[in-house]
Amino acid sequence: MLLTISTTYQPATDLxxxxxxxxxxxxxxxxxxxxxxVFYPEATKDKTTVALLLDIDPIDMVRGKKKFSGKGFSLxxxxxxxxxxxxxxxSVALSKAFSTAxxxxxxxxxxxxxVKMPFEIKITSLPAPRGxxxxxxxxxxxxxxxxxxxxxxxxxxxxxxxxxxYFTLDLSNELTISKLLSHLYVLIPAxxxxxxxxxxxxxxxxxxxxxxxxxxxHPEKELITRRYLINLGSLTRQALQRLSEHEDxxxxxxxxxxxxxKKETLHQKRLNLVLEQLKKTGAKKVLDMGCGEGKLLRMLxxxxxxxKIAGMDVSYSxxxxxxxxxxxxxxxxxxxxxxxLFQGALTYKDKRLxxxxxxxxxxxxxxxxxxxxxxxxxxxxxxxxxxxxxxTTPNIEYNxxxxxxxxxxxxxxxxRFEWTRAQFETWAKGxxxxxxxxxxxxxxxxxxxxxxxxSQMGIFNHGN
Length: 464
Ligand code: SAH
Prior knowledge:
- This protein is an alpha/beta fold.
- The chain folds into two domains: 2-198, c-terminal autoproteolytic domain of nucleoporin nup98; 266-462, Rossmann fold (3-Layer(aba) Sandwich).
- It contains 16 helices and 14 strands.
- It has helices at 14-19, 60-63, 88-97, 99-102, 132-140, 177-191, 201-211, 221-228, 233-243, 258-263, 265-281, 295-301, 316-325, 333-338, 373-384, 421-435; strands at residues 2-7, 27-30, 35-43, 48-55, 117-127, 146-153, 163-175, 285-289, 308-313, 339-343, 358-362, 388-394, 437-444, 455-462.
- The strands form two sheets. The protein has a seven-stranded antiparallel sheet with strand order 2-3-4-1-5-7-6.
- Strand 11, helix 15 (373-384) and strand 12 (388-394) form a beta-alpha-beta unit.
- Helix 6 (177-191) crosses helix 8, helix 7 packs parallel to helix 9 and helix 8 packs across helix 9 (233-243).
- The longest helix is centred in the middle third of the chain and has 17 residues, at 265-281.
- The radius of gyration is 26 Å and the shape is elongated.
- It binds S-adenosyl-L-homocysteine (SAH).
- S-adenosyl-L-homocysteine is lined by residues 290-292, 295, 313-315, 318, 345-347, 362-364, 367-368.
């Protein structure tokens, strides 16, 4: 997969200064899977072209340190378009190779950073989803690009197989290098439907940062934001709200497509599984430790089985949100009696945590400093001692499947650690043994043969 950027700005070799990459040198940057190479096929005063070549090893995606899978069928692990198509890998490569230029800085010749130059860009194998050509035009034309598109057929030898979803895209425009790189950074993944991407709130920050100065006015800002954030409705809404403070982005009903619902399921799936387990235990009094804004509490309230439901969190503002979202003020007094919210920390012995049949601790332990885990263990399993304890936490092995994560990255800036399945299971078994619990494990989310599921759950039962 190749992307080239040419300019006829005089002298054209200034492109080397702008990109902080010398035209005479061949340079490479490491990506999570494979490498990106930067080189100049031509570098004359009249015309200079820089090329960014993605070198992704599909076998490495499965076999290497970082394990990837293709979707749907096992061969997909080996045969997929990632090495050949302009995907979100390209974005990552652009930001790694040309970060200074993307941020609008030119150290060698500072005055160049603000110069609008004529650029021609060629992207081979750009996958475009439904809408194909029209979608590509909708994204690039409002930004002033002239576009030539050539759609590839599936196979030259078998013309009857018809057209593929891949295009060669030629763009030309006159603008600053930083704008150009930011456009590509956002729009290439917005076109890619098949990305392995961990979308956290940090992605909103990246989008807003790279979109600054152009995305706010783009007529397709909703579409771009939604597609960039992989149709994740709630994140998209947050991003749109911040993009246009005056408009009420919440009213955009277009966002509530089926796709949004499908994509938004990992956390929902997790909560559904936790609820299912809690119901199975026959528990009546349940405690959600680290309840956050109370998503699980809302689900628990709907189940008659639970006569006493408590939510505890260290954060007062999360508890306030939970109270709002539960519409606590408007609840009938009988319902109000069922639910109890209180502030507390999972690392301090607390009488209020005693007397429950079951406790859920969903995506919380990874927010505790590792040296506090022993206190946590005693607070929950020795003092509070509910009959059932359900703990969920991310499976770090799965992070390898997220293109935008580097080795060692975690899913949230507040995570103090993320564990492999073996680490979690060893820790959990140790606790179970010490405190007379049994423990079983369940994956949460789609299971990948090599790296497991995105999240993991331990179900502890006291005394058996
Ligand atoms: N369980 C919720 C929220 C998970 S986010 C859900 O699944 O949606 C993690 C939550 O743990 C945050 O709300 C944070 O305030 C809370 N938390 C972090 N450290 C804590 C501690 N020491 N004691 C109690 N809650 C804590």
